[in-house]
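Listing S7. Sequence submitted for prediction.
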Amino acid sequence: MPARPGYLQLHESGELARRIAAAREILRDCTLCPRNCHVNRLQGERGACRTGALPVVASFGPHFGEERPLVGRHGSGTIFLAGCNLQCVFCQNDDISQGGAGREITVEELAAMMVALWRQGCHNLNFVTPTHQTAQILEALPLAIAQGVDIPLVYNCGGYEAVTTLQLLDGVVDIYLPDFKYGDDAVARQLSGVPAYVATAKAALREMHRQVGELTGDPPGIAVRGLLVRHLVLPAGLAGTRRVMQFIAREISPATCVNLMDQYHPCYQAYAHPPLDRRVTREEFAAAVAMAHEERLHTRRQAQL
């Protein structure tokens, strides 16, 4: 029988309520993410993420396009949260992250979405781009628990995370699914508009791994806990894949599951930023896979639960 998610115990002990209060207080002078906008979101002020005090959701439903350990037979219960703390010029969901798609809803409605996905038999609740809506997710969780929700929570993020926020999620999140986008700060600033991406992502991954360790699953091979890192290979080596693989293998764990992604294609503003105006070649992706193998990492094709 799958392990009981840690958030249930936190709820029963009253610790989850304390975490909710702490996260909501951060919204008063927002430092949920490393941008540290210091806006009062409880009073309607908006920072870089353009999100206030309420959840904003673009869509939700069972998702079968995620990694196999998350999807299983019944899908990953995905909630696409609108807005983002990054400004990637090549974003493949730019309508959601930066284009204003999505609907502002109540915390009760967010909880109802969680319950609906659980009732459909989804193996987990997968919050996509959750960073700037962490407080809202936490606030909705007890309402979902009250209706029986008891499946793992997936934190599916861009890697630009504040360790202080992640610490509020210790014992709440079961599976961390971060991107590690870049191995070079100058590239990160140019393509995603944020400073100090590399050091920030490294600190975040260390904290995530401290909390949940390597990816583990139940007997049918469904993930129940752990860290799974995504890395999108970019044209001309812009993602700094070798540095990323070296960090994961040498400073996190060589047992870390890594999904090297080859699906990059030009969209949004990518055509104005060559070489992002073309797809990744077979040779470029093969070189990225070789880098991961040289570090003896568990890439997507190798990882089995």
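Caption to Listing S7: primary sequence and predicted structure tokens for the chain studied. The first strand starts at residue 56 and ends at 63. The chain is about 35% helix and 15% strand.
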